[in-house]
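Extended Data, panel c. Modelled sequence:
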Amino acid sequence: MSVQETAFQGFSNPVDPSPAELRAWAYQPDSVPLQSMPQDWDLLVSGDRLITTLFELAMDRSCPARRFALHCLYIYAADGIRTKFRAHPKRRLRKLVEQAEQTGDEPMLVWAHNSRVLLARPELFNYHEWCEGGLVRQGRRLG
């Protein structure tokens, strides 16, 4: 039985979900609506511990919570770049960007491009675009 077929049982601790819980929720996101999650849940889960899971979900075109996962990737990239990689390892972000460039579809290629642009020009950071979902909703490439 795959994760997609397993009934999501809820989070043992929504503030700190396990990768398996996040993955199970992502395939049944209506089971626990985002509105019922703790405030700034997207910011809470966009850290090193869950970034691989979020990346896998964002790469999966069939994942119902794909847009949420992609939004979290934008938060992760911006957080790392804005803190000069005190918050997250530069090597990990670079690997994710390279993997998205090699095997990702258009939304992932746009994320990789935008991450590279922000890395080269951190002054282009805009909280609304990177942390509130603006770039995910617009799907636009930064110049």
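Residues 66-82 form the longest helix (17 residues). This feature is highlighted in the accompanying rendering.
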